[in-house]
Every structure is written in C-alpha cells, then in structure tokens.
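Thread: "does anyone have the structure for this chain?"

Original post by V.I.:
We have the sequence but no experimental structure in hand. Need at least a predicted one for the grant figures.
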Amino acid sequence: MIAAREKAMIEKDIDTVMSQFSDDATWINSQGYYFEGKQNVLEFHSMLAGNNLLGYLYQAGEPRIRLIDSSNAIVYYSWKMFWYQKGDPSDITKKEIGLMTLTAQKRQGNWHWIAVTNQYTPDFYEEINPVTIDGH
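Reply from O.Q.:
Generated one for you, tokens below.
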C-alpha cells in the first residue's frame, strides 16, 4: 500500500491515493490539523496536488508494519516532500520531512487506512528502526 501511495503522490493521482482510505478515515496532518471523513481527507490531498504555484518531489521510506491481528495493523514510514516553484524543480522553496503513522484495517477482504497521524521529523529515515535511550 505504501509503494502504491508513493507512486500516486508522485504522479498526483489522487483517485489512487484516496482508494486506500475508508469512508470514516481520519487524518492529522503534520501541522496538527484534524480531518474527519474521506471527503475531508480528499480535499486535503487535492489541495496538495492542485497547488497552482508550487510542485513537489515526494519520497517514502521503507515501511515498518506491526500486525495487530489478521484484520488490523499499524504502519510507520518516513516521508519527505520538497516543494519547488512550478517549472523549476531545482528551485526548492520548502523542505518537509516527517514520519507517518497509519492504522490499517481489513474490511470485506480489503485493507484500508482508517486513521493517519503525521509529524515532522528532523531527518528522513530509509528504514524505521527501534531505538533505546542509553544508560536508562
């Protein structure tokens, strides 16, 4: 699902992006805004893809999947979105890097994102690996 999402985000294929969400999906973006329902999540993604002044470069890291049971999972992946002036991808105006936490649920045989939380991080991680606090 992450590879399909990454490809769709790069191609600005919002129909494919949204096909992965349940109707009752929730989304908290990296600025902390809460979107409820697939329609509101669609409007958020459409705003990103439909920006008249800026284009973006998008990359997803390798997902880390925590299977809760046969119908529920939590997925983590690092992402980066570099915004540029349309027509000149070398003119990067803003760099966003973050970690996405997605809750997936299998409904009627198909996996769907039901809840997503996004947060900024200082670095992009090709892989999500557990860390420990040394000395504690």
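V.I.: this helps a lot. Residues 4 and 17 are 8 Å apart (CA to CA).
O.Q.: and The helical segments are 2-11, 14-19, 38-49.
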